Fold these 2 entries.
Entry 1:
Amino acid sequence: MTDGDTDRRTAEQAWADLLDEAKPPHPARNWFAPYFWPLAQAAYAEPVLRGLYPGQSVNNLGFFENELWWTPTATEARTRPVITTTSFGTYRVVVDAWTQPTELILTADPAEAARFVAHLLAEQA
């Protein structure tokens, strides 16, 4: 992919790539993958989130207006809620995940976490 606008993926393409990479089978020593897969599916099921670009960083899944969310000048990544997958099989919705994380909810249900973030982002729109 280059920096030209015509070479950038659509949100739908980014989701297709994420879901393809996250699907089973998962490596035996990867604690994250079995928890991330149901989260990715639940997030994709939410129309508000499906219309945004998914961004995965370590064990966080965020939802952004473009796929350049990770660039140093993209303040959006620091202000949007993200869902953090824990090694205990729980999902935390946090804001300001990379500097001063503030937990909004903790749940064992990835669909609940996805619905919560979709609701927050719909209110911000």
Note: The chain has one domain: 11-124.
Entry 2:
Amino acid sequence: MGTGGLRVRPSPALDAGTLSDDTANPRWIVDLDVTWSPMPRLILAGEAVYGGESGVSFRRRGVPFAAPAATDKDVNWWGLYALAHYDIYDWLWLTFRYGFLRDEDAARTGVEQSLQSFTVAPILHLSRLARRFVRSASPIPGPLTRSTGLT
């Protein structure tokens, strides 16, 4: 089974990290995401985003990433991620994630750059592992019965 979606969203400008009613610099985002599970224990997911903002101004920047000041500039950025999650056992899962951001106009990070990240996360469910270990180490053959050897 798989799902997907496309979203185009205008966003209000951010003022000191909080949403405000300032729409002087229109910001927009196009977002495409997809998930797919080709088998019961495997999930694949991905997302791509492209965004922009109009009327942005930057101050002059110095060392180590010098750049001139900019006024009333239209800026864009884009990024993507891919994720794979697999249930190796009912108590051990493994997730791999890759992310990429291209800040072409220094709009999101303040520096024209590309950023990448790789994450590998083994997930160990201790309660499931402990339950499995306790059951296998138990001298009791069944969940609630005990053999006495007498008939």
Note: The longest helix spans residues 126-137.
